[in-house]
Amino acid sequence: MRLVTAREMREIDRRAMEEYAIPGVVLMENAGRSVADAVERLLGGLGGKRVVVLCGKGNNGGDGFVAARHLLQRGATPKVFLSCAPEEITGDAAVNFTIWQRLGQEYFQLATSGSLQLLKIALLQADAVVDALYGTGFRGKATGQVGRAIEAVNAAGKPVVAVDLPSGLEADTGRVNGPCIRATVTVTFGLPKIGLVLDPGVEYRGKLVVADISLPRVLTDEAAPDRYLLTSELVSSWFAPRPATAHKGDFGHVLVVGGSRGMIGAACLTAQAALRTGAGLVTLAVPRSLQDVAAGKLTEVMTAGLPETPEGALSREALPVVAALLKKKAVLALGPGLGQHPETVALVQELVRAAVCPLVVDADGLNAFAGEGGLPAERAAPLVVTPHPGEMGRLAGKRVAEVETDRVGCAAAAAREWQAVVVLKGARTVVASPDGYLGINTTGNPGMATGGSGDVLTGVVAALIAQGLDPFRAAAAAVHLHGRAGDLAAGETGEMGLTAGDICRFLPAACREIERRREVVNGVSGLG
């Protein structure tokens, strides 16, 4: 599913009206009706129900007036509150406000004396609330009576249907700078706005409904072709069935370079995850003193020993050995459990610059470039990096709070600067490519915030590159599968006790879901 910014959505609306002669009042009618439909579904019927409708002065408020009218016609008792003076309402919103008045219906102004107390009383009596205060143009902080009205709605605890997006939420970033409606359902129009799928927007929107308001499909289909919500439908479309005559060489050979004394487990998780996600062959290269440990843990993985320092970290002398191991390998996964010994840092820096096969770099592989101004853009091969916000901050010279405030912007800028696919991990992981493609993940749960989870993800990305996906699709599909495996694992273990090993164990089940979805789409019955 495509994701749009506020500006892109306004352009779609403009073109629908100017190029296709669809009146704005028709779009508003369809939007308001879809909101009324959502309220009716939420309440299980409207007869005798009381609904508070909060309306602003713009088109969002106009949608609210239409919704109020449809609620009235279906037997509900709407009570409309305005955040502005009536004369401030213009355009199509004014048309629908006039209709509301000519139906003999009253309204209340939030700016008048005692109006907030009146709203609180109405909320006590209400069965539901429609939030049509602010639309996609909102920026900053809801203040004054409107801010207090939002706080009153949240305090009332009644079901809320937000129009297009919750008031107080920024459409492009998901940022909340002050009071913000906590919706039960958000009905957004045409296409979802990017802020609705980012944190903290996800926490405020409730269930997301994308309503068709008769915008020409040619406009919505061509909108934001490089920005995606990573759904199972989209991800499954990137995979082809495995040929009946396939052999292990068809699915690529992954080389994992990682591990150090005390941190061999991270590299083992990466190798195991690569196997569990379908790589044909996996070789794990670790410090020589740890090779037997790795071989004992991983039955199906080949192992290699590399030169090491007295402290049990990889030595710079490992470079020619790794170069030899890279022959006939499809991808190099570099970083899990490496540590930050100066010799290891030097090794990593040389490998990233010189490797001729695609690289997936995580953890200490990224830390090797902290203080270096980021990853080198001049390299011999494609690169995928998978930083968490702390690692991204160190690489980009930003505070973690800055990274979290604009995850999309930070990931996109880093991808352009480093000429790499950037996977900015966290709730709603963001995947950005150097040529402008962007994906936002929909899977995963808080239980996945556990040691080793990122090492598993590195293995999944590497496995998908080995099987032929381009680096962006491999990274995007990997975060979806990784999150889905975590969801399946949490269904068995719960979130509190979830481990990285559990995520790894459920990767085949997550992959099977994708296979089944692809079979359904392609009309495969499964009968031989």
From TrEMBL:
Gene3D superfamilies: 3.40.1190.20, YjeF N-terminal domain. One of its GO terms (molecular function) is metal ion binding. Its cofactor is Mg(2+); K(+). AMP binds at residues 425-429, 454. Residues 9-221 form the YjeF N-terminal domain. K(+) binds at residues 60, 131, 167. SUPFAM superfamilies: Ribokinase-like (SSF53613), YjeF N-terminal domain-like (SSF64153). This is Bifunctional NAD(P)H-hydrate repair enzyme. It comes from Thermodesulfitimonas autotrophica. The gene is nnrE.
